[in-house]
What we know:
It comes from Thiorhodococcus minor. The protein is an alpha+beta fold.
Amino acid sequence: MKFRIQHVTRYEYAEPVSLCHSIAHLKPLQTRTQRCLACSVRVDPWPSVSREHEDFFGNRVSYFSIQQAHRTLEVTALSDVEVEAQLPPEPDRTPSWENVAQRLYDKGDGMMTDARIFSLPSAQIPLEPAATEYAAVSFAPGRPLLEAVLDYMARIYTELEYDPASTTIATPVSEVMEKRRGVCQDFAHLAIAGLRGLGLPARYVSGYLETLPPPGQLKLQGADASHAWFSVLLPDFGWLDFDPTNNQMPSEQHITTAIGRDFQDVTPVRGIFYGGGAHQLTVAVDVNRLPDPPEEAV
């Protein structure tokens, strides 16, 4: 399935900004189930310096610096992506979750050793005893990993309420646990906190989700948004994604832009600026399915 994604981030400042330095995680990743066919990032005003690099996690990072006075900043990313469905293994035939945690320390297994960083606490996902205790309900001794994670995801979906007004990007996991409400970022952070508390490798995934309008209604342009979920490493298979906001394993409608330990590693656009005073931020995202090319006549 092919998609075209347009992500527009616009800052409006009360006073002129004399200088800004920013980085963006807006270019989709190349994975075994996803191909970035084309991608561009346009910055207005035109930056004095711009370049791209790959970070520690393999993400495509755009850096730019604007060294002229400006009252608005607009960053537009346009990407064409092809996504294939990933067929997961049978949940009850996966190894026990304890076995997976133990294999992190197998020096002969490079994939598991590399994943060890995702089992450690991070800036926005410290070890949280309440989250570990919450996750442990799904992880009975000897339970197959995939079966346990699916149950854990379903519990987050049913027991926490989606409420955009309840949290901010800085809300800690402990507060999400207490309020039992939040948004996709909060649910991903909570899920990861519980998994890491059990010694399992879990990473934060940032991207987009194709949303379809109700039958008979037109899709509103700019109404989509960035999305977040988490993934867990299954030995001898690879990373498996889980979307607790929708209680599903992501398939063709999820597009990945970046992976990291938590939200801070994959922020779509962030930076520092001098001047500006108060500012207003608006974000508009469109995820549209591209039609298949017509078949050639024989």
